[in-house]
Specification:
Order of helices and strands of chain A: HHHHHHHEHEEHHHHEHHH
Strand content of chain B: 15-25%
Structural class of chain A: mainly alpha
Largest interface: A-B, 30 and 35 residues
Structural class of chain B: alpha/beta
Number of strands of chain B: 10
Largest sheet of chain A: 2 strands, antiparallel
Distance between the termini of chain A: 19 Å
CATH topology of chain A: ABC transporter involved in vitamin B12 uptake, BtuC
Strand content of chain A: under 5%
Oligomer: heterodimer
CATH topology of one domain in chain B: Rossmann fold
Mean pLDDT of chain B: 89
Order of helices and strands of chain B: EEEHEEHEHHHHEHEHEEHH
CATH architecture of chain A: Orthogonal Bundle
CATH architecture of one domain in chain B: 3-Layer(aba) Sandwich
Strand order of the largest sheet of chain B: 6-7-8-3-9-10
Shape of chain B: globular
Distance between the termini of chain B: 33 Å
Number of domains of chain A: 1
Low-confidence stretches of chain B: none
Radius of gyration of chain A: 21 Å
Helix content of chain A: over 70%
Chain lengths: 341, 278
């Protein structure tokens, strides 16, 4: 089977007849994160030329800190979108979890570790609830999470009374992810380290374990997956639960980053996380995409925001650019799905 | 071994070189299988014997109960009455997974392959193999290299030349190649019986030939093969025996030498009986 003489005429034929454009299509089909990576590099070069303060160690540190929370949320969002779902409740789950852990630990009310565990558990249960509604009552994920978006947001506001809790009222453990260490002027926070760990662990799980393979299979063709012996419903339930757990960790990162627990922190978290996933080359139709793409996608959105603000350009240009990118990303996805051997 | 009495066989209608297949007991037997859906009778007491190393084709008009019969044998339906024995042991399949665990693999008409996953991943979907040692037991790491190698071997065993790269996504394959992947999966894991539902329905002439070659390969490797098909030339080319379903019952079992295609179709449609035609 290694000898070239067994290669069929058909295989030879398809190899010869590829135009450069088809080769690009083929490359993108195998590595959908190549186009966002290219875009990220272009953005870096453009901002490097136009703003002297952009590509400096301190600026890069700030860029990463700004990206951390959305990048963490986008991991959970990627899992769900890979199963051909969508999660509109990301931000709400994170805020609920954050308000729970902050209120419990406020002014020494509860040890920081216990409050953290309960807060993350809340987020995990919220994810599990989404999963149960999707798999047991067979509601579309869009509707389920649209509903729980309102429910979790309302609970968070009712529970906190709409008031923020400043970092000074919280135990150090809940703030620690905002602290960090510097390598010269380049400052990293522990929150960034946690985000990198989340990506590393989940990238391993998705690419190296049977569970990860099932996530792709369920998202690509749920019926075929079921006929092949994949426990589809259990996988879906697991995906929503793990996503919830990740949102809980994102809540912890957010307290450190914002220096407070605020019920209306990051109001655009839902769309920002979906945008990062989509720009990162993950298909909204499920079954295709890589976590590395999501990380690049989150960086692209933040790079535009940061670079344009350094240029002193109106933030609305950033919003406009993000919208254009989303449409281009989905168009590219549609194109590469039509790949032929 | 088994206490189930065999259905009668017309030995003289089976070529000499194939007759030894019927010396052993049948691997799968079905007796008086009945199932109804509300007031509609799906199967009305159907019996069938399947032997190791043979291709048993199941033909019949639409609504004759071909698919229903196969679904009862592969765990998709639980029959209301009758008994199924696998290697002499009574079995009750409640889900397709039960039948699969017992060694009966089905290649569905819709193939049940995942387009975005590569060939090796598809072959091993639902029964992935993990690495040995701590990487497998603690970190649950898949043995990708090993599975890819064995997938390549499975495909090669079927004599498929056109698939070279096991890490190629299934969506980049042609219809025949996808069928080949589905058959290779069944062959790799079906230890006793492989059921193929209309494997050539969507294929061109050349690709159909390839699939029929695979069917013979499966049979020669000692598996019992059930082939459901509407394509009479294909059935007459590969089948050892042909089970004809009609109106929820079995109209008879013929062989490609005992009856020709025209007679087979006549029996299928009720224009003739097996005795008339013989």
């Amino acid at each position: 089977m290694s000898s070239t003489s067994t290669t069929s005429a058909a295989a030879e034929f398809s190899r010869r007849r590829q135009t450069p454009l088809q080769q690009v299509q083929h490359q993108l089909h195998g590595r959908p994160w190549l186009s966002p990576l290219f875009l990220l590099l272009v953005a870096f070069v453009a901002f490097f030329i136009s703003t002297p303060t952009f590509l400096t160690p301190s600026s890069m540190g700030i860029l990463l800190q700004q990206t951390a929370v959305v990048a963490a949320l986008a991991v959970g969002q990627t899992l769900i979108i890979l199963t051909a779902g969508i999660d509109l409740s990301v931000g709400a789950v994170m805020v609920l979890s954050m308000m729970v852990m902050a209120s419990l630990a406020q002014d020494g009310g509860m040890p920081g570790l216990l409050a953290l565990i309960i807060g993350v558990a809340f987020a995990t249960i919220a994810g599990l609830l989404n999963g149960i509604l999707v798999t047991r009552i067979n509601l579309p994920p869009f509707i389920v999470t649209l509903g729980t978006l309102s429910i979790f947001t309302a609970i968070a506001l009712l529970y906190s009374g709409g008031a923020s809790i400043q970092a000074s009222h919280l135990p150090r453990l809940l703030n620690v992810l905002g602290e960090g260490f510097g390598i010269g002027a380049f400052r990293l926070t522990w929150g960034i380290v946690v985000v990198v760990l989340i990506y590393a662990v989940m990238a391993f799980v998705l690419s190296q374990t049977a569970w990860g393979r099932y996530v792709y299979a369920v998202g690509d063709d749920a019926e075929s997956a079921r006929l092949s012996g994949v426990p589809s419903r259990r996988i879906l339930l697991g995906v929503y639960t793990v996503a919830g757990l990740i949102y809980g960790i994102a809540a912890w990162i957010l307290i450190g980053r914002a220096g407070a627990a605020t019920p209306n922190a990051i109001p655009d978290a839902n769309l920002a996380s979906i945008t990062a996933v989509v720009i990162g080359g993950t298909s909204l139709f499920g079954g295709r995409g890589r976590l590395i793409g999501t990380l690049i996608g989150a960086l692209i959105v933040q790079t535009f925001a940061f670079g344009l603000s350094q240029l002193g350009v109106d933030q609305q240009w950033r919003v406009l650019a993000t919208g254009v990118l989303v449409i281009i990303a989905v168009a590219i996805d549609q194109w590469i799905r039509k790949v032929k051997a | 071994m088994s206490t189930i009495e065999r259905l009668p066989l017309t030995h003289d209608a089976i070529p000499d070189d194939r007759r030894h297949i019927y010396d052993a007991d049948p691997v799968l037997t079905a007796r008086d299988i009945g199932i109804s859906f509300g007031r509609v009778i799906g199967l009305d007491g159907v019996s069938l014997d399947l032997y190791k190393g043979e291709v048993l084709a199941v033909i019949g008009d639409n609504g004759a109960g071909k698919s229903t019969l196969i679904k009862c044998l592969t765990g998709a339906y639980l029959p209301d009455s009758g008994a199924i024995h696998l290697e002499g042991k009574r079995v009750h399949f409640r889900r397709p997974q039960d039948a699969r665990d017992a060694g009966i693999e089905t290649v569905y008409q819709q193939l049940a392959v995942i387009p975005a996953l590569d060939i090796a991943s598809n072959l091993y979907l639902g029964r992935e193999e993990r690495r040995s040692g701590i990487l497998g037991s603690v970190f649950r790491m898949l043995d990708k290299g090993g599975m890819e190698k064995r997938a390549g071997q499975s495909v090669q065993d079927l004599g498929i030349q056109t698939i070279q790269n096991m890490s190629q996504a299934v969506e980049t394959l042609s219809g025949g190649q996808r069928q080949a992947v589905a058959v290779a999966r069944a062959a790799a894991f079906g230890s006793k019986v492989v059921v193929l539902d209309e494997p050539t329905a969507a294929l061109g002439v050349k690709e159909s030939g390839m699939v029929l070659q695979m069917v013979k390969q499966l049979r020669d490797s000692g598996l019992a093969v059930i082939l459901i098909s509407h394509n009479m030339p294909h059935v007459w080319e590969v089948a050892d025996r042909i089970h004809i379903q009609r109106l929820g019952g079995c109209a008879g079992v013929i062989t490609p030498t005992s009856h020709d295609m025209g007679e087979g179709v006549a029996i299928m449609t009720g224009a003739k009986t097996v005795e008339d035609a013989a």
